[in-house]
C-alpha cells in the first residue's frame, strides 16, 4: 500500500485545439469590444472551464488576430511553446462558422485519420470545441454575421518533422488535436504514481471492481454503460502492462478493459507501453487477425498497407467484417490476462469513435 506516500500533482497542459479555441474566442471578443483581450475563459469538452492567457491581440472592425502559446504541462511534446494563431473575420453569412487551416497547419493526404483528404488536419473535437464556445458566447452576433476562422502555426512545418505527421501523410504542418482539451503527461513517474494512487483509493474504499480505460474518451463511454463509484474509473493511458501488474499487487478482483482501436491494436500484440513515440501499429498482425475472419486477399493487402489503426477500422467497416473486432478483443484479453498473471477477471470492450460497442470478450 502507498497510503503514507504523497505524490506530486500532475501539471496538465493544453491541447492545440484548446489553444485555437481560446485564440478564436478572444479574437471575436476583441472585435466586439474593440479592445485588446489579455485572457479568456474556455469551456472544455467535459464542460469544465479553464482560463487561457492570450499572447497577442490585434483587432480591426471586422478582423482580429490573436494567439496563444501552447503549454504542454509536466511532459511537454514538440508543440510545447508553439504559437497558435487565429485570424477571425466577420462575414455576411449569418449563423455560419467556417474553420480553415493556414500556414503551419498540415494538409491531409492519406485516408485513415477520419478527416477529409486535401483539407486541413484539424480534428473534429477541436472544431466542435471552437463552435460550441462561439455559440455559447456570441449567439446574438451570429444572427447577423458569419465567422471565418483561419488557424496558423509559425514554424508548424518544421515542428511537424518531429512528429508522426509525415508518416501519416499530413504534409507541411502540425495537426490541431485534442479529445479532452487538456494534456495529461504520459511518460513520467508522476503518471505512474497517479495510477497507483487511484487504485489505492479503490482498495481503501473496499471496491475491487474497476474500469481501466486507455483515455478520456473511452472512459466517458464506459461510464454510460456500467455503474461503479466514480473513483473506480482509472485511466491507464499508455501504461497497460504496468497498470495490470499494479492491479495484481493491490488484489483487484475484476477489471473492464476499454478503449478504441488504436490502443487496442497495440495492446493486442503484447506492447506494454503504447505511446505513439515508442510503438507502432503492427499491420501484419492485424491482417492475420482479418485472415481468421475469412477475409479476401485484396482486403488483406489493404490492411497490410493501411496508414493508421483508424484506416484499418474504416476498411473493416466498409467490408462489413464486424467479427474482426471481437477477434481483436480476444487478443487484448490474452495479453492483459498474461500481464495480470491470470489472477483478475477481465472483460474487454472495444468502442467505435461514437461510443458504440463494436467488439467485446468474453
What report would you give on this structure?
This protein is of the alpha/beta class and 362 residues long. Helices cover 37% and strands 22% of the residues. It is built from 13 helices and 18 strands. The chain has a five-stranded mixed beta sheet. Strands 15-14-16-17-18 form a five-stranded mixed beta sheet, sandwiched between helices. The protein starts with 12 loop residues before the first strand and ends with a strand. Residues 1-7 have low confidence and may be disordered.
Describe the structure concisely for a colleague.
With 362 residues, the chain is of the alpha/beta class. The protein is 37% helix and 22% strand.
Any descriptors?
362 residues, alpha/beta, five-stranded mixed β-sheet, 18 strands, globular, disordered N terminus
Average pLDDT over all residues: 89
The share of residues in extended strands comes to 15-25%
Straight-line N-to-C gap = 31 Å
Structural class: alpha/beta
Count of distinct strands: 18
> Strands across the major sheet, in which order?
4-5-6-10-7
Overall outline: globular
Profile the largest sheet.
5 strands, mixed
Helical segment tally? 13
What's the gyration radius in Å? 22 Å
| Helical coverage, percent range | 25-40%
Low-pLDDT segments, ≥5 res:
1-7
